[in-house]
Design goal:
Keywords (chains A, B): DNA-binding, Transcription, Transcription regulation
Radius of gyration of chain A: 19 Å
Organism (chains A, B): Arthrobacter bambusae
CATH class of the largest domain in chain A: Mainly Alpha
Structural class of chain A: mainly alpha
Strand content of chain A: under 5%
Pfam families (chains A, B): TetR_C_24, TetR_N
Shape of chain A: elongated
GO molecular function (chains A, B): DNA-binding transcription factor activity; transcription cis-regulatory region binding
CATH topology of the largest domain in chain A: Tetracycline Repressor, domain 2
Oligomer: homodimer
Number of strands of chain A: 0
Domain HTH tetR-type (chains A, B): 13-73
Helix content of chain A: over 70%
C-alpha cells in the first residue's frame, strides 16, 4: 500500500503496519530526533494518549522500521545466487536485489540511510548496515581477484562509488512512474559494469 | 585552511572567512534550521552579542557559503573546455571539474546538497543548482546524439545516476587521505565511462 494513501486517511482504527508507514514518512520529513510522539499522533489524527495504544514508544517504531529495511537487505545474501557461481554474477545478483529492496521498501531504506547514530537502536542498525556493506565489498574483491572486474581502481573506491550510485536512488526515484524498478536495475548494472561509452 | 584547524582555535579575532568556515561546519553537523546564532557564537567561542560584529545574520552566512559552492560550480561551465570540442570530452571535463570543486570546497558543497529549501536563500540556491544540473544534462544528451555515449539508457536516468555517484562523494571522501582528488576523479570517470568489467 503506498504510504500516500495511508497518510491521507488520517483516522483512527490503524493496525500496527499502517502506524509504522505513517511514522516512517514523518521521520523522513522531520528527522527522527525532531519527531515527538505528539507530532506522530497529529499525523495519525489520533490523540497523544491514544497513540500509546498502538505502540509503546517512538524507539519501537524506529526499531520495527529499520528491521523492515535491514531484514530485506540481509535476506538477499541468504539466497543461493548470492553465494554460488562466479563472483561477478553473484555481485550483479546482490546489486539488483539491493535496488529491488530499496525501491520496494523506499521510505524504510531512506530512513536507514539517513540515520545519524544518536541512539543504541540507530547504532545497532548502522552496525548491521556496515556488515551488509562489508559482504558486498568482499564480493567486489572476489570478482576482482577472479579477473572479471577491472583491477586499476581500489576496491574500496569501487565499493563507495557503487553504494553512492545505488543509495542516491532514494533521493529521486518515484515508484509508479515511467521508470520501472526492473528497468532501473538494468540501467544501473549496465552503467556500472559496462560504462556509458558507446561500444566501438 | 582545513575547517578542523579553525574550529579548534575557538577564540575571538576572526576574519569573516574563518567565521564562515566554522558556521558551515556547524550547519552541516546540526542542520541549518536547527542552528541558532547562540549555537554559532558558542562554537566560535565568542558571546552572542559579539557575533553580530562579524555577521549581520545566520542567513548572510548561509548566502556567503552557498555562493562559494555555486560560484565554483558555475565557473566550470565558463571555461573554454566546457563549450568547445566533442560533447563527450566536454562532459568529461565538466565532471572532473565538478569533482575537483566538490573536494576543494567539501563542506560548502555538502551544505548545498543537504538544503531543504525552507527559505528564499535556500530556494534561490536550489534554483541555481538545478540550472547547473540542466546544463550537464544537456551535455549528456549532446554526447548521446553525437554517438559517443550509449543510447540504451534514458538520458534523465544517466544524469540522475551520474550526479548520484558524484554527489555521494561528500558522504565518505576524506581530504588529505591516501586517495588524491585527481585519482578520485580518474576513478569516477573510468567507472562511469568504461565500467567495472575487465576488458576482454
Amino acid at each position: 500500500m503506498p504510504s500516500e494513501t495511508v497518510t491521507k486517511r488520517g483516522r483512527p482504527g490503524y493496525d500496527q503496519q499502517s502506524v509504522l508507514l505513517i511514522a516512517v514518512d514523518v521521520f523522513n520529513r522531520h528527522g527522527y530526533d525532531a519527531t515527538s510522539m505528539g507530532i506522530l499522533a497529529e499525523n495519525l489524527g489520533i490523540s497523544k494518549s491514544a497513540i500509546y495504544h498502538h505502540v509503546p514508544s517512538k524507539g519501537d517504531l524506529l526499531k520495527l522500521a529499520l528491521e523492515h529495511a535491514l531484514g530485506g537487505l540481509e535476506a538477499i545474501l541468504e539466497q543461493p545466487e548470492a553465494f554460488t557461481g562466479a563472483a561477478d554474477a553473484r555481485l550483479e545478483f546482490v546489486l539488483r536485489q539491493t535496488i529491488a529492496v530499496l525501491v520496494d521498501r523506499l521510505p524504510f531504506v531512506t530512513l536507514l540511510l539517513r540515520l545519524r547514530g544518536n541512539t543504541d537502536i540507530e547504532r545497532d542498525a548502522l552496525e548491521r548496515r556496515r556488515a551488509f556493506d562489508h559482504k558486498v565489498a568482499a564480493l567486489i574483491s572476489a570478482a576482482r581477484e577472479e579477473g572479471t572486474l577491472r583491477q586499476d581502481i581500489d576496491p574500496r573506491t569501487v565499493t563507495r562509488l557503487l553504494f553512492g550510485t545505488i543509495n542516491s536512488i532514494v533521493e529521486w526515484y518515484k515508484p509508479g512512474g515511467s521508470l520501472s524498478p526492473q528497468r532501473l536495475a538494468d540501467d544501473v548494472i549496465t552503467m556500472a559494469f559496462d560504462g556509458l561509452h558507446a561500444s566501438a
